[in-house]
């Protein structure tokens, strides 16, 4: 299976993935249920309506068992045409390059549209978010933090919005081509930029970082899209830094989601007289770590000078590559999705896509191969060489 789909890898499997993600009336949870029951999308579409109706309503099962309607086929063709352009990619849930961190979400996207350098997904990520109507001082702070952290190996993740988001992206770009770069998670299709004033910034990010979206091409900005975007921002990152935020703010939603996913939450304090400091102060009262400099974050999360690769052993030490190369092919994708930090069986099932009945056998094989170890509390941990 390819690491991802690009212009020279248009296959029937990709067509099936696109159709599954675009299928009218098929909820993401239903699609994942079908994947668990039937296998990859081509197997889903080769199944009879009777088989599919065991998992989804019969009317929907009939729809999937037939050829796609004209409008759906047009959407698939549009995505395939978009994919033919340089540096355009589609990364599906089954691909090794799919960000393993997103599997912590209960509603991980079936696929992601990407424009730019997929390599930045291999770096540790730190999200920087905040107010759209940020002060000049707040924007300068976001830029400075982003530039410093990107130069230390942290990929800066944000949402391409006005204010703090755009300042964070600019700071990461300012750190130069040798830095860890930046990822803009968008609340629109990748063929549209919102706000339109950020088209030049989006172009720079695609040239030196990555634009990422779960939304189909042609999807316009809608209010309910941005909380969905924010959960991707939170999940991709090891930690979230809130620079300025009002008491009721989308940035606080991102911070809450990050906390629920076990990510670190950082906040910069401000004047007690500033409305844009109240959200940060509320986070600090709730347990977010107060930071005054980028070094505070580095002290907490570590100074990462090299990329952390999720999808390949090419940058690993020789002993670890030997261990990896000796594994059977079916075990490698499983090991790639297991962190060196302990994971519960539930987390492992989300990350690997394995069923509860399948997981123990795979874990036993990885343990016998010396790749993982069980912990007394029931969690599992990948072993370092």
TrEMBL record:
InterPro entries xrefs: DprA, DprA_WH, DrpA_SLOG, WH-like_DNA-bd_sf
GO biological process: DNA-mediated transformation
Species the sequence originates in: Alcaligenes pakistanensis
Domain DprA winged helix: 325-378
Domain Smf/DprA SLOG: 90-301
Protein name: DNA processing protein DprA
Family: Belongs to the DprA/Smf family.
Family matches, as NCBIfam families: dprA
